[in-house]
Task: structure prediction
Amino acid sequence: MSIVLVQRPGALKTKIVKGDTVMIRRGKEKGKRGVVKAMFPKAGLASVEGLNVVKRHTKQGAGGAKSAGIFEKESPLPISALQYVCTSCNVPSRVKYDVGPNGKRRVCGKCGEPAAETVKGR
Ligand SMILES: [Zn+2]
Result:
């Protein structure tokens, strides 16, 4: 992985977590949807399954590659270009926090359906 880290004082605050469905709001993949595969909060980036795919010409052994060749991989997108998509009402919406007796839950800003549970260990 060769991600150029943007120097920031800290991690970017985001409500999107790994496993969320998102819509791309700008750039080459504008309007497309996908599932967040990995988050890079310090760089302000996230990679989305099947989107922003780039070809990498890899030498054998470089970056842990077992064999040389041309590989396709998802290049991370800026988190600011991603919008959360609710899986219940299927529209791009915002994430709200619902504070209840069991603690804070992420809910859809439109229908109030709870969002997918936060994936641990991201
Ligand atoms: Zn919803």
